[in-house]
Specification:
The protein is α+β, with helices and mostly antiparallel strands. It has helices spanning about 35-45, 55-60, 135-155, 170-180, 210-245; strands spanning about 10, 25-30, 65-75, 95-105, 115-130, 160-170, 185-190, 200-210. Strands 1-7-8-6-5-4-3-2 form an 8-stranded mixed beta sheet, with helices on both faces. The chain binds coenzyme A.
């Protein structure tokens, strides 16, 4: 790139392919007090950055906070019983995790448009244990984060419009993965971003959230609402039965 060139985007793949379904024994779930120790071990083992206690406190914060953290839990099937045991099934294992925060992107108000702001999702961590890779787990974590952000953090005045991350410049595997997932890798290398790694630079990967993301979020929300309505319906029916039974 010549010194006059603007910082253009180098690699671009606009539309990621639809995700494959996850194996039925993998569950994507918010990080909770029960999964936090395993989630913390996973992040500490797989990523070269040491995060402070505050980061892990945010992992279990509820959805009123701007931190979003999910883990992938692998539930062992009865066929995977421990040798020598009778009916013992190993405890579920945390095999992957993602943690993000929402960042505001204020848009200056104009006369014709009301005050609006946009938000971006910043991926702080994303990792999957190596024996469990290429099963679609990271894709499911990413898709669920996007859906959650759109569903719970977009409204008439705020919209979640993009998602981005910093990736170590030498992490070809992760850069390739993000491109496959529709992210664009920005040309500029942020030198000195990783003080303890050599080389020290980071590349920014970024994806605008599109119609497909919004439609998927809408469909999932509709399914969720239907499940809640069915549950409420069956509760009120069982309440009626209880009332009748108790005279
Ligand atoms: C990057 C990482 C999270 C991917 O996790 P994963 O669960 O294996 O990813 P998925 O199974 O969802 O996606 C695999 C897909 O990406 C593709 N893929 C994986 N690595 C790729 C690469 N380097 N280039 C292109 N495609 C790649 C696979 O072919 C597969 O494609 P498919 O869905 O068409 O079969 C995982 O490798 C990891 O934890 N790496 C170490 C930690 C890390 O570097 N994190 C990123 C830091 S921000």
């Amino acid at each position: 790139m010549s010194p006059e060139s603007p910082p253009t985007l180098s690699v671009c793949q606009p539309t990621p392919r639809p995700s494959k379904p996850l194996l039925p024994n993998i569950e994507i779930t918010p990080v909770g007090p029960d999964t936090l120790p395993a989630y913390r071990r996973l992040i500490t083992t797989l990523l070269p950055i040491r995060y402070p206690d505050k980061f892990y406190k945010d992992s279990v914060a509820n959805t009123t906070s701007s931190s979003l953290a999910l883990c992938a839990v692998w539930r062992h099937s009865p066929e995977n019983r421990r040798q020598g045991g009778t009916e013992n099934v190993p405890e579920p294992t945390v095999v992957g995790g993602i943690q993000c925060r929402l960042e505001p992107l204020p848009i200056p108000p104009t006369e014709s448009t009301p005050v609006r702001s946009m938000q971006t999702v910043y991926i702080q961590t994303l990792a999957v244990l190596s024996p469990y890779r290429s099963l679609g787990i990271a894709t499911a974590l990413l898709d669920t984060i996007i859906t959650t952000a759109i569903t719970y953090y977009s409204n008439t005045t705020d919209n979640v419009t993009e998602i981005y991350a910093h990736v170590w410049e030498a992490n070809e595997e992760a850069l390739g993965w993000y491109v496959k997932k529709g992210f664009t890798v920005e040309n500029a290398v942020l030198e000195g971003y990783y003080r303890k790694l050599r080389p020290t630079g980071a590349r920014v990967v970024r994806r605008r959230l599109g119609v497909g993301d919004w439609l998927r979020a809408r469909d999932l929300k509709a399914d969720e609402d239907m499940e809640i309505n069915e549950a409420v319906g069956s509760t009120s029916i069982s309440n009626e039965i209880d009332k009748k039974a108790n005279g």
